[in-house]
Amino acid sequence: MAASSKKVLEVFVSRIPWTIASKEMKEYFGQFGQVKRCFLPFDKETGFHRGFCWVGFSSEEGLNNALQKDPHVIEGAKLQVQRNRRPFEGQKSNKDGNFD
After folding, report:
1. Which contacts qualify for 19-25: CB closer than 8 Å, 24 or more apart?
2. SS3 of 58, please?
3. Which of 13, 54, 87, 94 has the largest CB neighbor count within 10 A?
4. Is 42 helix (H, G, I), strand (E, B) or coil?
5. pTM assigned to the model
6. What is the pLDDT of residues 33-90, one digit of tens each?
7. Count of CB atoms within 10 A of residue 86's CB?
């Protein structure tokens, strides 16, 4: 199955304004490289996203490009972007899939 030594090409992004949707996150991070996946979890009670997401890249180059930029600003808000060391294994959907 999946090897634990496989590199994780994801960033964890926090401090996302509530007005931003997954589509905008994919578009923004797409400037650094091809985005393979973007998971922006929502709060079932409020209907708003929870202010953080995971963005997965197709290449290490895209990941490194995103990590080199500082600050990341969307709609005037400075995002906090960190390398994700372990693959996100939360809710799985047929659309997103795993990093294989």
Report:
1. 19/75, 20/49, 20/74, 20/75, 21/49, 22/53, 24/74, 25/53, 25/55
2. coil
3. 13
4. strand
5. 0.79
6. 999 999 999 999 998 999 999 999 999 999 999 999 999 999 999 999 999 877 666 5
7. 8
